[in-house]
Each structure stands twice: as structure tokens, then as C-alpha cells.
Amino acid sequence: MDSTLLEIVACPICQGRLVFDKATQKLICHFDNVAYDINQGIPVLLAEQAIPLSNVQEED
Fold first, then answer.
1. Per-residue pLDDT tens over the stretch 38-48
2. Which InterPro entries does the protein's record reference (predicted)?
3. Global pTM?
């Protein structure tokens, strides 16, 4: 994930900072405890497609 992109993108729910998780290849919002998929290098930042972190950890 490009570090410049990480500085620009924000959580669509709270507008908080997102963190790239290398293990799951997802963008994580620790404020809302949700993750966002990255499809073909493009973050899917839609609130209705946010994945609860508890579900992300179960996928591993």
C-alpha cells in the first residue's frame, strides 16, 4: 500500500486515519473497529461494505 495514499484516505464512517494491515491486506479503522478490502490495489471505502474486525480475525 502506497504511504502517500494512506495519508490521503480516511474512514468513510468517522473520517479517522486508516492503517494498512499487511497480514490481512486490508485497511483498518481502529476507532470504528472495522476493516476495508483492497480490490486490485484500490481501497473499497464504502461504509456499507465495512467488515467488523472480529470477522477479519476469524478469516485467518
1. 999 899 999 99
2. Trm112-like (IPR005651)
3. 0.85
In the chain, which residue ranges form alpha helices assigned H by DSSP? 3-8, 53-59
Task: Work out whether strand 34-36 and strand 51-52 pair parallel, antiparallel, or are unpaired.
Answer: antiparallel
What spatial distance separates the first Cα and last Cα of the chain, rounded to whole Å?
A: 20
Which residues have a Cβ under 8 Å from the Cβ of 34 and sit 6 or more positions away? 11, 13, 28, 50, 51, 52, 53
Task: Name the nearest CA neighbour of 29 among 40, 39, 19.
Answer: 19
Domain count, the chain: 1
CATH number of the domain bearing residue 7: 2.20.25.10
> Range of 22's domain?
3-59
